[in-house]
Prior knowledge:
The structure is a homodimer.
Chain A: H1 19-43, H2 46-53, H3 57-63, H4 67-89, H5 96-113, H6 116-127, H7 129-152, H8 162-181, H9 188-201
Helix pairs in contact in A: 1-2, 1-4, 1-6, 4-5, 4-6, 4-7, 5-7, 5-8, 5-9, 6-7, 7-8, 8-9
Amino acid sequence: MATSQSRSPDSEPKVPRTERGRQTLRKLLDAAAKEFGEKGFHEASISGITRRAGTALGSFYTYFDSKDEIFRALVKDMSGQVAAQAGKAVTPDLAGFDIERAALRAFLEFARDNREIYRIIDEAEFVDPASFREHYETTAKRILERLQKGEAAGEFAPGMDEAHAWAIMGMNVFLGLRYSVWGEGNEPDRIADIANAMLRDGIASR
Amino acid sequence: MATSQSRSPDSEPKVPRTERGRQTLRKLLDAAAKEFGEKGFHEASISGITRRAGTALGSFYTYFDSKDEIFRALVKDMSGQVAAQAGKAVTPDLAGFDIERAALRAFLEFARDNREIYRIIDEAEFVDPASFREHYETTAKRILERLQKGEAAGEFAPGMDEAHAWAIMGMNVFLGLRYSVWGEGNEPDRIADIANAMLRDGIASR
């Protein structure tokens, strides 16, 4: 399985065909998250990643051609994990504001347990701008779809716009930075309640 | 005036005593914004900065000891410019939500006219984490003070919290990224209206 056969630089990462291969790829991505998160892109090394993963160097080259390529794959993987966490938290019985609350709460917990995600996504702005942009555009699109669905169901006010989605994404990202990455991350319910009440009713005195 | 006398690494940038010195320092900081914004920290050079500023290398060392030091000064300067723009927009006749709208509108215009600000502040997360953190903590503190003042005046709901300030900051930062840096930046009023209405009344259907 381990081959150093070179693939074209634009090729997608090779998809493992066996369960063992899937496990190796997962180990490499998890190790890359630690390596890039601790050292940053420039100081990180392929040998550092394989050492953390406990895999041979050849296994790395089975799936990736370069440090750039595994970084790009990692941003995509983390972006997918954020989406998957929100997806899991949003159970079918939820609607409207409860969906937004569950999605934020899940993100706050995910960021607390994977603090390196901020450093990695933020570094993509410099190392791989296309992935950086794609992560936020994809996330905003997902939020806008929820808002439009809630508008159609009569729960959200008419006129849900892309700007609402970006505003909500910004709220969530900065609350995660402040309370999950820089803070203890031990009050996801309180933070999610504050943000959800603000989203629902605003902060005007009534 | 031009001296290469070395100062201790922790010293504050030297404060110019003459009007001409103030102009030179301003030119150096503006040139640094362009150099770091276009090339990023690692590719940027002191000679690139002085070339853009049209100043002698000696003038640089009058005010800064290193590329790191001018970068740190630049983050502080940009953070101060963001605050100053908001301050100018918030005229004494405004209160409550009108203040928040004016502050966001001013920021959207500032980010459109100084697109490099995102790249510079975001790169500080890696090059100078303390400045990165200070920028956001200072900005959030300023927002929270406005919220508490509005709460005392009966315009904002009781219980304004640091989390509200971070949520509002996140909204503003991401709306600036989407519409001022990645977009044309030609609809600050529409964006400020959407964000302000959401902040005031939320997005619940009524």
